Amino acid sequence: MRLEILPVDVVARRGTQSLMANPLIETKLHVPPPRRNLVPRQRLLARLDDAADARLILVAAPAGFGKTTLVAEWLGTVAERGSTVAWLSLDERDNDPVLFWSYVLAAMQQAAPDLGAGARTLLDSGGVATDIVLATLVNELHGVDHDVVLVLDDFHVIERSDIHDGLAYLVDHLPETTQLVITSRADPPLPLARLRAKGELGEVRAADLRFTAEEAADYLNGAMGLALAAADVATLEARTEGWIAALQLAALSMQGRDDVAQFIAGFAGDDRFIVDYLAGEVLHRQPDAVRQFLLQTSVLDRMTGPLCDAVTGTTGGTAMLGSLDRQNLFVIPLDDRREWYRYHHLFADVLRARLLDEDPDAAGELHRRASAWYEDHGRPADAIRHAATAGDVTRAAALAELAMPAVRRDRHDATLREWTVLIPEDVVRVRPVLALGFVGVLMTAGELGRVDATLREVEEWLALAPEARAASGMVVVDDEQLRALPGAIEMYRAALALMHGDIDGTVAHARRVLAVAPADDELGRAAAHALLGLSAWSEGDLDRAFAEYTESIAGMRRIGHSADILGCSISMADIRVAQGRLRDAQRLYEQGLQLVADHGDGPLRGTADMHVGLAEILRERDDREAAAEHLRQAEALAAFGTRQYPYRSRAVRAGLLLADGDPAGCLALLEEAERCYDTDFSPAVRPIGARRARAHVLQGDIRAARAWVRERGLSTDDELAYVMEFEHITLAIIILNDRPPEREVRTVIAMLDRLLAAAEAGDRGSSVIEILAVQALAFDVGGEPTRAHDALRRALALAEPEGYVRVFTFLGPRLQALRERITTGTTRPIPPPADLVDPLSERELDVLRLLKSDLSGPDIARELTVSLNTLRTHTKSIYSKLGVNSRREAVRRAADLGL
Amino acid sequence: MSAHHIGSYLAIVQYEIRVEGHLSSRWEAWFDGLSLTRADDGTTVIQGPIVDQAALHGVLQKLRDIGVPLVSLSQLRPEGE
Description:
heterodimer; A: 899 residues; two-stranded antiparallel sheet; 49 helices; 4% strand; elongated; disordered N terminus; B: Alpha-Beta Plaits
């Protein structure tokens, strides 16, 4: 669980935005460059080509059978044919569904920049079920007009069943143009038998991959230039059973040897584990320096020259790696510049086993050196991993504490989760800064009980006198972060309260943040204001909510957190829309886009939401074309959407479909929107269920709409609340469209009266317009045409200045007919009411007096000592009660009425 | 719950894993101190206490990763059973 409304550093969030910025991770997405001394494997390439119709190609064989090499070679020919090729090399650390799918989508995007963007937004937004992310990916793949091949290399390292399930779903739903290739040492738990039976599985297995006698001869005598006798080749082939790694080791140990035949005879007849034996031979034949280098660097997952130097305590690592590469000594380049390498997995295991056997204690020191190098080179994650492997958890903890702010700022949530596993709990417990840094992980995992326990423990440490802390065993590496702890604790407590739906608690803790956070903690203070804004909004206090958000973005502007400003802008625009101030809302979104333009560094998270917001406003004004255009722009920027984006974009598109007379399409989209509905803790003031019920009404499916009413347990006697307002208005619409008896119409009218009073009191302009329109419908249904006209006139008067249109058409043909009679005035003129149905209040009479003067708006506001906003509310109300649209008309009409 | 079932929770179970080919004794450290015995039929028996199923699968995975073909696997009953 994550709070997007809060700035990043307060609550850790899921996200992979920085994934691609890490060159070490980019190597995972890199198709391995061709190996030297390659034996062409036409028979296998042809076999892969023949499997063109298979959804899945499985290349399954033990280590050292040339799986990766074969697929990489085949991809070269595939890419030449114009297919998009996405590659992902997996390792043990990828056993995390979010990380795994992030990599898959990153691989897709690396291959084709637009591919997987929508799915990635969903995934990054967190809290969305994987099946929706994958469904979105499948949709995107269906829209691609060329072939796509996705390779998952070394899939056997993935053990999580939820990842397996996701992959099974993907395989089942891939379009014909997409093919999945898996290399693995073990058959993946996918429905292989079913795929095989349907001819949808291509397979290359150990028996196929083994070198044939001919290939062995090609390799030994051709590529390696050994000039062996046919009988020797046959002996080798038989002894190794075509196991490529063993043949390679044999070739390496025979190079430059005079007694080749004798050497072959020497092991042909025994049972020694051949790879181990031959690796020993190869190592034995290396100069001591090379042998030492190989053993010592075997502790590294990835190698680059300077890192090797640090680990071996010598120089010349870069040259050594280059030389190993040229000699084919089992190093595999990870990039085109041949800067980073790794050992072939099988060879690395053999080396590590030897190192462990020869010098059991050496590995610890080697890992420590690797850790130090990574620390010096600004790669805390690797430094921590090696420190932990060395058993030095104290060092790992200290490194983690120092790296915490950067990791959280860059949203490397998966890295944080890894640290919580690597660093034992008892080590974390005495480190309050580290412990609090891990709270975000617990929060994301939904372990709220443990969040609370950790906060208590940290508070206990802080309660100790500073001189007593160290004596009690407390460890702090970063004093700067220690200073910020009290504010951070309150912020987490506020977030906890919010998650439990406890608004009072949220407000109390957010206020505490403002009291205890240092003045220069802009981020913490801005977050507190955002939470206060959210709380006020949930309670329906729109003006105060807006003011708090304004404070929040002021702070974020000072520290340049532009993406968080966009996040708050969405809430602020929502509030403006609720207030009936569409133009102000529009301006907020436009300012958001301007901020992105000024930022100058490409789109920011939230950019897509700005377009969706504009589309929503344009849809309300019935400017469908412009709305559709903004939706298109949003879609192109889908990778830059917040967690609200998935549902909001669908809901707006659904609204457009409805406007185009496609209620079925609208309903389908709303169903999707409901599945990814996530308001990011904003009050759910326009729930999708209610919108669906309205669409059902327009479709004439009253039963479905009634079913929703039952499900929600709504009734016209309910106590009213702001968060239920939209649903109660929907209830009224449903009843009025269901041929209600007169008695029921009266109860609806009574509820609408209460709703209107509440909306007016809360200054919710949008609701007022909508309630008035529904009232008009109610009066019309109830046979009171005059009152229907009055209500609708008031609604239209309020709607006109801000350009509301859809709110009326949304209510169905009956209201539209009524509206046409009013706007065209053709059927019969609406008699002006002899006196006001709804008399002006004292305050409104004050305003009216000043409206008669020459004073400008701001002057009148000053005169009455109210804000311009409040004045605006009053004048709007006066206009609507008088049924006019301008100041001049109001003055004239007031004179007519003798006010 | 049978006595043996309880026993499997209390006592560490002995396993015998037979693989093809002769693995030299230098691999003992790699297999966390399990003993390696080379048999006349060209196989190697890896034997020793393995704390639980997860540890057993860890050993099997190590064997898979170095490409040693697995021949058989059996649990050795504690004495007296």
